[in-house]
Specification:
alpha+beta; two-stranded antiparallel sheet; 8 strands
């Protein structure tokens, strides 16, 4: 483990440089295509790393290596063409208003990786495994639903439950044939949004039985009712007031739904990596949290994603 002086030095560097990293993001240009937009100038970007690091559950990898998914009430496909990103089902307006912020493209992850990895050999290894990760700017309510469902669950089953919930109770996304053109897996299929809080708040356990949520059913319905009464949470403390939302789930939502990059969610995978590579006992969640705050500062959430992706690859 690093000395306290090394930890403090890195924390100061991380916190002081985080804002500057965003300002130095690479210039991005776009050009329209037929039912698509091509984005050039992106660095530190890998679709596999982004969509397979446990932060989202509505993207599916296609046979050609691209990803088709639903976000912000849109159905699109994303693929790489050389170093360019091609988004089918989008135009330039949607890119600027939706996908550019969603993919966090204006943040300089190259600089962030330098800050995190320069004095930490463990983090440097983790970054090398998932160097193209970016934190998605997701819809808050969908993130709440997804991570309530995620409790004591694996990623394939989480994805299945979220999809079934959307199919049973969500609003349909009308996708014309022209809009579906060029989106692998889209033609002839019906697409649905995650149901909103008012819809879920009036459902019963019997209604939700086909989704097979188990004990999470009550958490979801009661959280929906709380959101209807009080509005969406705005910080970590308010997130923990939702039924069934403990520290781990709250930190996930805080990071992926509220964009609080200092959050450091600790699940079974993070416990393993912190034990295996940093020497913590797996039960020492408090120690891990303190270490993350001191070591990674305002970049804790990004550090967590590198570590999460790395340990899952080691134990695959």
């Amino acid at each position: 483990m690093m000395s306290r002086a090394e930890v403090a030095g890195r924390a100061g560097a991380a916190e002081g440089a985080a804002a500057a990293a965003q300002a130095r993001a690479a210039a991005i240009t776009t050009r329209p295509g037929r039912n698509s937009v091509t984005v050039s100038g992106i660095r530190d970007f890998n679709l596999d790393h982004i969509f397979d690091c446990g932060q989202c559950f509505r993207w599916a990898k296609q046979e050609d290596g691209s990803y088709t998914g639903i976000a912000m009430n849109r159905v699109v496909n994303m693929r790489m063409s050389g170093s360019d990103l091609v988004i089918s089902g989008s135009d330039e307006a949607d890119f600027e208003n939706i996908w550019r912020p969603y993919l966090d493209l204006d943040r300089d992850y190259g600089e962030i990786k330098k800050i995190l990895g320069n004095s930490d050999p463990v983090m440097k290894l983790a970054i090398g495994a998932g160097e193209g990760i970016r934190i998605l700017k997701q819809d808050l309510w969908e993130t709440i639903v997804s991570f309530i469902i995620s409790q004591n669950n694996n990623i394939p089953r989480i994805k299945g439950c979220v999809e079934k919930l959307a199919e049973c109770f969500g609003e349909e996304i009308k996708l014309s044939e022209s809009r579906a053109e060029g989106i692998p897996g889209a033609s002839g299929r019906r697409w649905y949004c995650v149901p909103d809080a008012p819809t879920l708040a009036v459902l019963t356990a019997e209604d939700l039985a086909p989704v097979r949520l188990g004990y999470r059913t009550r958490y979801l319905v009661e959280s929906a009712r709380q959101v209807c009464e009080k509005g969406l949470p705005t910080n970590l403390a308010e997130l923990t007031e939702l039924t069934g939302v403990g520290p781990k789930v709250a930190n996930c939502i805080n990071l992926f739904g509220l964009g609080e990059f200092s959050s450091f969610p600790i699940d079974v995978w993070v416990k393993r990596v912190m034990h295996r590579l940093y020497g913590f006992e797996e039960k020492d969640v408090r120690g891990m949290t303190s270490f993350a705050q001191e070591s990674f500062g305002d970049l804790g959430g990004i550090a967590q994603q590198y570590l999460f992706y790395y340990i899952r690859g080691l134990e695959a």
